[in-house]
Each structure stands twice: as C-alpha cells, then as structure tokens.
Amino acid sequence: MDAVVSSLLEGDHRALSRLISLMERGDPQVGPAMERLFPHTGSAYCIGITGPPGVGKSSLVNALVQLERGDGRQVGVVAVDPSSPFSGGALLGDRVRMERHYLDPGVFIRSIATRGTEGGVPRVIKGVVRLLDAAAKDVVLVETVGVGQTELDVMQVADTVVVVLVPELGDAVQALKAGLMEIADIYVVNKGDLGGTDRMVNAIESMLHTGPARGWTPPVLVTQAMNETGIQELKGAIQAHRNHLEQSQHLEAQRQRRHAAEFLAIVEEELGRRTREMALRDPDIRAALGAVQDGQAEPYSAAMRVLRDPSLGSRLFAQSDIG
Ligand SMILES: Nc1nc2c(ncn2[C@@H]2O[C@H](COP(=O)(O)OP(=O)(O)OP(=O)(O)O)[C@@H](O)[C@H]2O)c(=O)[nH]1
Ligand SMILES: [Mg+2]
Fold first, then answer.
1. Could you say which of 248, 279, 303 is where a domain stops?
2. Is the CB of 165 under 6 A from ligand 1?
3. pLDDT tens-digit readout, 169-201
4. Among 58, 59, 162, which residue has the most ligand 1 atoms within 8 Å of its CB, making it the best to mutate?
5. Residue 77 CB less than 6 A away from ligand 1
6. Which residue's CA is the nearest one to ligand 1's atom 14?
7. In a domain, 9, yes or no
8. Domain limit, last residue, from 220, 248, 276
C-alpha cells in the first residue's frame, strides 16, 4: 500500500484507479492511506455540475476540461452514474464525447455507479475527490444528475456548484422542487440555440429575487455546449465565484464545515449500522420485534419501551467492539 500511496502522490493514474476501487468496496486499507494522503490535499478546486437528465452536463464538462487543459492544468473528472435504465446510453455517449480527453495523461476520468457502492455514494465521491486532490489535480469536475437527495448530497463536495437547465417551460420549476435552486452558485441555460432562452433566463432571475440573500448573487449564463459557445464566460464565472469565496474567507470555512459534517455523518452511519446489528442479537429486542411483526404490539410504543430499559446500553455495548 505504501508504494501505491507514493505513486498516487506523483500523480500516477493506475494508483488512483486502484485506490478508488478499494474505496468503492469499503476496503479497510483505505483509511490509513487517506491519512497519509491528507496533508497533500487542499489545493484542488472542485466544481460540481448538476441539473436534470440530458441538459448537456457532460458536454459542458467536456468543454471546460478542454479550456483547463489549454491553461496547462491537471484535471480530474468524476461522473456519478445513476445506473438507472434511463441512462443506459449516457456513459457510452460520454466516452465518445470525451474521447480525446481519455487519451490525455493530464486528465483522469472516472465514473462511480450509485449501485453497489459500500458506504453510500456521497461518501465515496468525497473520498475520490480527495484522492484526485492528493494526486495533484488542479481542478476536479463532478457531474451528477440533479434528481434526489443523494445527488444533492454529492454536491456538498463542490466548492462551486453549477446548475444546468435548458430553455424548456417547467424546467426551472422542476429545479426549484428538486432543491437545486438552493445549492446553485451559477446557473447555466444550455442549448441556447433552442427557442425560449430569454424566457428561461428571466424565469430563473425572478426566482433569485425571491430567494435568500447570500452575499453572492448567482449569475445566469447562456451556453451552447455543443458548439462550445459561452464556455469561456462560464469559466470566468466559476473563477469569480472562487475569488468571492477566497476573499471572504468562505472557502476555508465552507471546507471545514463540510469536513466536520462528513466526519459526523460517518460516525452516525457506522453507529447506526452497528447498533442495529447488536440490537438484532439482543433477546429482549428480538422479542419486541417479533411482537411488532405479529401485529401484537404497536411499533412506536414497543420501541420506546425497549429504549427506556436502563440496562439496554450496557447490554448492547457489552457484546460490541465499540463499547
Ligand atoms: N441543441 C443543443 N443540444 C446540445 C447542446 N449541448 C448538448 N446538447 C445535446 O444534448 C444531449 C445530451 O448531452 P449530454 O452532455 O450527454 O447531457 P447530460 O446532461 O450529461 O446527460 P445525462 O448525463 O444523461 O443526464 C446530447 O445529444 C448533446 O449533443 C446545445 O448547446 N444545444
Ligand atoms: Mg452526462
């Protein structure tokens, strides 16, 4: 493992792939490796790209990667693959779109499936971004489809969140419902070649006025990712947001807050998992569970009775390795 860690610090892509796979599987060797890598993190800037399916997120990522590479920066791309039947062809399409980047040693691209990932997708994505950071990537782009809580949680990893929409009636309203308007630092109306672009921009801007003030007003940009139009402006807006975060000391504060939240979430998750395992071995709890399953006991009152038992804690933790 020492050799893998050293290679990763030199930016070796095979070492990166190896550690990411171990992380996806929840391998215990990853913890000590992360500890060694941590002092080498903090310099990568993470950009999240989210929005409804098919709005052009990958096309924008592709165009941004090209600009960053033009500036000679090392880039990491992490795509969250929802493994849904609806996105069957998406990754294949992405591969075709990103072909030239796959061949570029300055770009590392990895997709993470939402299914079969040990410990939850947001946790894995945070770990993967940290690995890319340690591997001396200057910029890390994370793409995720903006539907559902998991995807919103994934965006916690990003310093700047770009929410992508298209000029379609109802798109803005959907984004509002999905909670995307709360996490957006920058809005992009992509497919600006289609009709209704101005109307969409106005719709978003009118929603912004009703939103809470945050010391940063998210700009609304129009792009045509397919024709590489408006990408330089998007890069400029990301840089402006970064400057805002750095000058206001928000960047460090935001990262520290998120590290704390990540730590607490893992403690909570693990305690929950282990407590459940122990609880299911406890005779009193099993008896109560049986009564609930048979319809003889009411779930809430049965749970509260079990929890009020003063000997519960000592009983559970007596048989555990964390007591
Ligand atoms: N008309 C038009 N089509 C575009 C534009 N940008 C991207 N597209 C097309 O939109 C489709 C979806 O693009 P992607 O970049 O795969 O979109 P995505 O948001 O990553 O899609 P998922 O990851 O599947 O949610 C592709 O067929 C693109 O060619 C644009 O500016 N105008
Ligand atoms: Mg995509």
1. 248
2. no
3. 677 777 777 788 889 999 999 999 998 999 999
4. 59
5. no
6. 56
7. no
8. 248
Residues 214-241 pLDDT 10s = 689 999 999 999 999 999 999 999 999 9
* Dist. CA 112 → ligand 1 center (Å): 20
Spacing, Cα 159 to ligand 2 middle (Å): 20
What are the tokens at 21? 């796979």
201 and 300 housed in the same domain? no
pTM, entire model: 0.88
Total domains in the chain come to: 2
Q: What atom in ligand 1 is closest to the CA of residue 145? A: 25
CA distance 185 to 163: 8
